[in-house]
Amino acid sequence: MSNVLQQEQQMIADSARRWATQTGTTAQREQSAAHAHGCPPERWSEIAAMGWLAFSIPAEDEGLGGSLRDQCLLAQELGRALLIEPFIASAVIASDLLVQCPPGALRSEWLTAMAQGERRLALALWEPQYEGMLSAPHAQARPSEHGWLLDGAKGQSPGLSGADALLVLAQLQTQPGQYGQCGLFLVSADAPGLRLCDERLYDGRHAASASMESAPATLLLAADAQRLLAMVQRALDRGIVAHCAETAGAASVALETTLDYVKTRKQFGRSISSNQVVQHRLVDLFVEIEELKAFWWLAASEPTARHVSALMIRCADVARHVWEETLQLHGAIGMTEEYQLGEYLRRLALAASLYGSAALHQERLAAMAFNDHTQD
Amino acid sequence: MTEIPELSAFRQRIRQFVRERLPEDIRRASLRGQQHSREQMVRWHRILSADQLLVPHWDRPWGGQGWSVQQQMVFDEEMALGHAPELNSVTFDMLGPVLIHYGTEKQKQRFLPAIAAGDQWWCQGYSEPNAGSDLASLATQARREGEHYVVTGSKIWTSYAQYADWMFCLVRTAQGGKPQESISFLLIDMKSPGITVRPIVGIHGWVVFNEVFLDHVRVPAGLLVGEENKGWTVAKSLLEFERLKLARIGENKRRMARAREVGRTHMRMGKLVGEQPWFRERFADLESRLLALEANAARFIERQQAGELIGAEVSMLKMRGSRLIQLWEELIVDGLGAQAFALDRAWLCGEGSSGDGAPRDDIAATASSRRFLARGYTIAGGSSEIQHNILAKQVLGL
């Protein structure tokens, strides 16, 4: 069952489905995953040529000024094809953070280049050992005669390696040994002193941690840490909604694959789908996925903290339930590398916590219900 | 979700109405989770009726207000959150629409104004000792004798039959054959000679269910709804809005508010329950389920308003909404611990408390009974297993 789509939305979904069906093959995914940083430039250009990188970029910067809903619709289709390239990390999260920055030549230049796929940007989301949870930066920025220099480290975030530049938060040194405000910096990928440690994750996507030693950087915005973190939180929240849409797409395919399988697989002289226990378990998955689709659709229209956290809790729960159950209902074949389901299982397992765990979001939601005594 | 201004103004209007017009004793009974008396319910029906709010979802000529589905959902929600009693859905959501759709002009004139005025209470006589979800096994016979049907048999799990003036009933009018061809839909006056109601006390301590015995009960043939032997079509014709309502968003929110209240005001082991990690985790999990359910119901509504036919898929709303109510009730009971152990039958029925008569805790004193009562949601109106079967066959093609 689909959401009620406007005509342009239907076109987005249809073209994404067509592209994803054509290019979303196991061989193509393996090629992208085996690439040095999980994002072959020719693939990124292909995605840009579809216009998809311009969605969240304002029209005055040569973007399409589209809505988060449209982006999510796209993400759901790309999720069906298990896109390896960091669409959400770059085209949703990093784009949105840059869009939030005050207007200026640098911002415009980058947004335009990003919309066209000429440059890719990614945000170093997490502090080391705080992956999944936003926290105040430890990295430090000090002024020098050539501009700002950064020292410090960032935890493993999707999309960093291969990006043309990173967005990085750091504390601003006012005098030697003294720090006041924080800054949002643009660090060029070829900046001396920047080192990325890239990993291929178990679903084929890549993520990297970063370390900086006197790495030159350009200051985009100086503000207090709270304000900058609120901006990052907004960008991350939008990324989470897109991530949930993407996960719903992947989960749908896992379910469809399983439905086909149980209808054809025969045991004891009949298809295993004729067993009520199998039917009811599949119904549960179907209903959970439908709820997830309806929920991201709602959250995308206005991603409030409450909706985003609740959505991520559902997403983590559904992703886990779907991968565990579709594997079990397949039996041993589901555990093999060569059978197509396996890629979906790995994607879903990772999706449950790639952008923060359910536990974290449960606490965020509970705090709204129990810590704030003003909203009685 | 930001509401459009008109809907938000509508919500305020309903909220204000409940705050100003719901009698204090009725409000208190719902707040405490006590069972309302028939008198209380009828009094509230009449207050709603006086402001045209008892059957706003019916067709206009019969008292409907022509509200959008969203408005109707908001209305239900505000009723639940303002501590109004849950209305008897078999009367207002099932029988009323059935009569509007299938009733003869005479039947409509006779019953609809009385129901819309809040004067009449109906119960539903479907289940029998050997026919729960499986209506093919229905055994209550209706034999035609001149201008009457003579009905003999028994019905069970008949909710609030002890309060009811009338019962709408499925009876067998032909032997064998498919249920679609042998069952009829009959309206029976509960005061008819030959009817005996035996109350069944539930594990929760209340009388909700009854057994209804029919011994040669004479029913005028003019009280047949639809054609003879076509009662099954009438019975399963729940209109789309009523099926959307089965998500029970309002009833779920009522329970979420209670769970939150437990967390914010009740202490255990020297600490507010809402400060304890296990409670916070479960609360947040259920809240996320409720928001997802609400989003899903909203999507069905959007589809319906876009002119799409809502198919068997809508079963998922009943399946999820009913289960979620139970999960909330379990959380409330677990949060309260020993405070919810006692059973005080007088208190449950709003007749003061046993012992010294001092008021008991608003939430704790009925929490355990309500948790048992909530088990009915996944059994009645097509059990969750039946909903699973419907989705498996009609939607997934299994």
Briefly, what is this?
The complex is a heterodimer of chains A (376) and B (398). With 376 residues, chain A is an alpha+beta fold.
In words, what does this structure look like?
- The complex is a heterodimer of chains A (376) and B (398).
- Chain A has 376 residues and is α+β, with helices and mostly antiparallel strands.
- Chain A has helices at 7-23, 26-34, 41-49, 68-80, 87-100, 105-115, 225-264, 276-301, 305-330, 341-351, 358-370, and strands at 121-123, 140-144, 147-158, 165-175, 178-188, 194-200, 206-223, 266-267, 270-271.
- Chain A is globular, with a radius of gyration of 21 Å.
- The mean pLDDT of chain B is 93.
- Helices cover 46% and strands 15% of the residues of chain B.
- Chain B is an alpha+beta fold and 398 residues long.
- In chain B, the strands form three sheets. Chain B has a four-stranded mixed beta sheet. A four-stranded antiparallel beta sheet of chain B has the order 2-3-7-6, with no helix packed on it.
- The two termini of chain B are 36 Å apart.
- The A-B interface holds A 1, 3-4, 259, 262-263, 273-274, 276, 278-280, 282-284, 286-287, 290-292, 294-295, 297-299, 301-302, 306-307, 309-311, 313-314, 317, 359, 361-366, 369-370, 373 and B 1-2, 260, 263-264, 272, 274-275, 280-281, 283-285, 287-289, 291-296, 298-299, 302-303, 306, 308, 313, 316, 319-320, 385, 388-389, 391-392, 395-398.
Task: Give the SSE map.
The complex is a heterodimer of chains A (376) and B (398).
Chain A: H1 7-23, H2 26-34, H3 41-49, H4 68-80, H5 87-100, H6 105-115, E1 121-123, E2 140-144, E3 147-158, E4 165-175, E5 178-188, E6 194-200, E7 206-223, H7 225-264, E8 266-267, E9 270-271, H8 276-301, H9 305-330, H10 341-351, H11 358-370
Parallel strand pairs in A: 1-4, 2-4
Antiparallel strand pairs in A: 2-3, 3-7, 4-5, 5-7, 6-7, 8-9
Chain B: H1 5-21, H2 24-32, H3 38-50, H4 69-81, H5 89-102, H6 105-116, E1 122-125, E2 141-145, E3 148-156, E4 166-172, E5 183-189, E6 195-201, E7 207-220, E8 224-225, H7 231-235, H8 240-245, H9 249-265, E9 267-268, E10 271-272, H10 277-305, H11 315-336, H12 345-348, H13 364-373, H14 384-395
Parallel strand pairs in B: 1-4
Antiparallel strand pairs in B: 2-3, 3-7, 4-5, 5-8, 6-7, 9-10
Helix pairs in contact in B: 1-4, 4-9, 5-6, 9-10, 9-11, 10-11, 11-13, 11-14
